[in-house]
Amino acid sequence: MFKNFKILHNAKNSGVLALVICFYVVSHQTMFLAQIEARSVCTDTENHSVINIVGDTELAGMASSGEGTVFSPYIIGGLIIDEANKTGINITQTSKHFIIQNCTIIVSGERGKYFGILIQGVTTNTAQIHNNTVKGAYFGIKIINSPGTIVSDNYCYDNYHDHIKLEKSSHSIIRNNTCTTTPTATDVYSKGIGIWDSHSLTIIDNNCFDNYDGGIYLLDSTDIEIANNLCRDGNDGIYLHHSSSLRVLNNTCASNHVGIYLLKANDVLIQYNLIKENDYGIRVQQSEQAVIVNNTFQGNYIYLDLIDATSITVNTGTQTIIDTSVPPETNETSTEDPDETYEMTPFPPAVEVIGILIIAIVGIKRRKGWNY
Fold first, then answer.
1. Domain that holds residue 91
2. pLDDT digits (tens, 9 = 90+) for 304-337
3. Is 225 exposed, middle or buried (0-12, 13-18, 19+ CB in 10 A)?
């Protein structure tokens, strides 16, 4: 992209070059979002077999319209894909711009192998996944090594593991998706949105509810904004593990086991959230430099490990419980796909309260149906 700025390399004022590059990057992603908003929902659909695309030639051949440019991306849309034991749409190693939109993908058959939509190894800022319905897959929508991907307005339900999963795909946007599990689904242990080893993300306006394992999960990621999401009726509403430079703003976390859980998460701002009727409102363990202010707590508390208490700033007047027991060991291995590292650390067997005011916890009634 920078060949267009060749003449600027010889300019005396290097600040001009920096400004132009910054403007290009920001306007590029803004233009992508504008394209999504401008596209009307297509009502025409057709039954289609599974799609496997490797490279730009196959992508062009499969597209129903478009030229593969930022202004005219290839379109794969309006398809109904319903086949057992197969991934619905798989696109890899492309460099052209494309949008997958208005598709319904149903995956059935053997668990653990197949995806609704799988995007891997595509060029930065070229992929958009918009307004699709995905059901029954191991991962509903999975993005791997594809930075700058936009995942928006999708409805993902009854997928076995993560409804939306992002791995090694920085500078992406996950916006206005619904991730849920219906009461009739069986053998589903899903998370709403899972993030691993991705940086500078925006996760905004998503609805994650009734998922067994929880709402939004981060691992080994930095510079993330999580804002205006609903995370309810799961294990952890928002789970931040081994990550840093996080902003958790204006979310609603309700009726979970833990509303917001920090485990080895540093430099975290938690502000303007509604934390309501969780078993534990905010749980902080082995984390530093967390600021928890201007939140609304209803029927739950902040729960801190003693080792963390000196570096945590909390709401004035917020009821805070400080644990003096030794924090349990946790699995820090994260060199592979971390799907099995999201297990929640057990709570200590005893809680002692430090301070002038002693709060005795006789018992916190567990919600019916939780397994520990």
1. 45-340
2. 775 555 578 887 566 777 765 544 443 333 334 4
3. middle
